[in-house]
Amino acid sequence: MTDTSRQATFILQQTYGYPQFRGEQEAIIAHVASGGHAFVLMPTGGGKSLCYQIPSLMRPGVGIIVSPLIALMQDQVAAMQQLGIKAAAIHSGIESGEIGYIRRQLQENALDMLYVAPERLLMDDFLTLLDSTRIALFAIDEAHCVSQWGHDFRPHYTQLSLLAERFPNVPRIAMTATADAPTRKDIIERLQLKQGRHFVAGFDRPNIHYSILPRNNARQQLLQFIREKHAEDSGIVYCHSRGKTEETAAWLKEQGITALAYHAGMDSEARTRHQQRFLQEENIVMAATIAFGMGIHKPDVRFVAHMSIPKNIEAYYQETGRAGRDGLPASAIMFYGMGDAALQRSFIDDSTAPEPQKHIERQKLSALLGLCEAAGCRRQIMLNYFGDSGAPCGHCDNCNSAPETFDGTESARKALSCVYRTGQRFGAKYAIDVLIGKPDERMRQFGHDKVSTFGIGKEHSAQEWQSIFRQLVARHFLKVDSMGHGGLSITPEGFAFLKEKQNLQLRRITVKRKGLAQEKKYSSETQAPSDTGMFHALKAERLRLAKAQNLPPYVIFHDKTLHEMASQKPSSVAALRGISGVGEQKIRLYGEQFLAIIRQYAEETA
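and the corresponding structure tokens:
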């Protein structure tokens, strides 16, 4: 072991309380601590933060961490301070007097780490201040924001290329959890990291169970999911509009679930209050738009639900990645309908993006629709999308209950022919009524009860035809009117299918069952079963300590650490040191309180 590795391991164990590094953490830290530049792609919850935090502590000077959101900075600073690390943040939510104090700390080399938004970093006076500051490294978090081809492009991030020009001898590390191959290439080029090392640690989040269901009364589906699987958990429910977040939160409250709404149109004070409640309390469901996004690093979010499809697989991967950051079992569920594709396509078509970018976004949307209608392993499809690989996971809805497929060639031809014969302007419901021979006054008015496709689809139920039409939209054989009327038209791909007489396998709709499909329980290899009663007693003590300091409970200890305490029942400080996530500062601050809970519970249950 080199001196660098020994120093890094000492900090990991003494400060953070972790026994050993995971994956490529050690190699990344050694490279950056030695002055090298790096691009790091690592899944959410994989330990990216340590890859810049430990080198910041090892190198002389202050680590400057570029971070996109205030909530993210506040969360990280609170966590660092609990570990005894001298950390601060400068952002628009801090008063000028405090900013002046932090700047003086910076000049006096009294900080280990400083978190700053790209807009602040790029100000001339701040860059001038940095010119006279000893800098350990620059860390660019959420680096996918630098790429126009990524899912969360932010113009200020593109200007961070000046760091390479102005501070050429300061190591730079760019990190993301979400970037396909073109986005990775763009990040590396824009941030001038071609000469650095590139670490791609993979995308798999094995603790998350993925389910994607056709939307059929989404509120009831969501309620059933929460009650059956996450009745006492915190979760996020993503809605596509501000109004839907408020309606969903209000409805969940009526069902007896503690729920809050969050969106960019809310009063800033209410928005901040709701976010703080979600972070600092337990068992809260947040109904939100994607404005409730990157800054949420709450590790014990046990589920993420989507009430409609997101914009692409990158967005889906990142949004679902907010569940189970602590590595414990978590769920991601999505409810989707045919109109979702039309809505997302209209967002793309109406945007001011150049046409090449719109083309890429349409391709990304098609890939997401393919994921929704896939009959194979969800996780495998996502890993393949990002250029990663893996065998079927055994831990998604399709793996747990493999969907049946059938030769849908003739059914697809009937559906497309019906859309054509009725003028390519009616919605799926109308086309289905024609196919199953269910005339109404409007159909008679247009003479569609006389077309050749009337009544030729009686072999399928209306529900089965809905599934077939969704799959044809997902394959881009049909296009839904983006003006909101739901009319279907045949795409060039659809006409090519009719002309070339291709064979087509479709997913057979399953008979609706009572209850949700049973998830296969994921369990970390290192996570032994814990004493449930003791775990709740430890959680109660953690909540008490957190409220006293106005901190999120997870900043004190993660659930994973409490589970390990409840399993191993340490009775001394020496034994407590063997618990993952318990460093020396945490022992000084909280060791005796948690040991007292463990001893008391052991006596009461003896």
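(Above: one complete record from the training split.) The longest strand covers residues 208-214.
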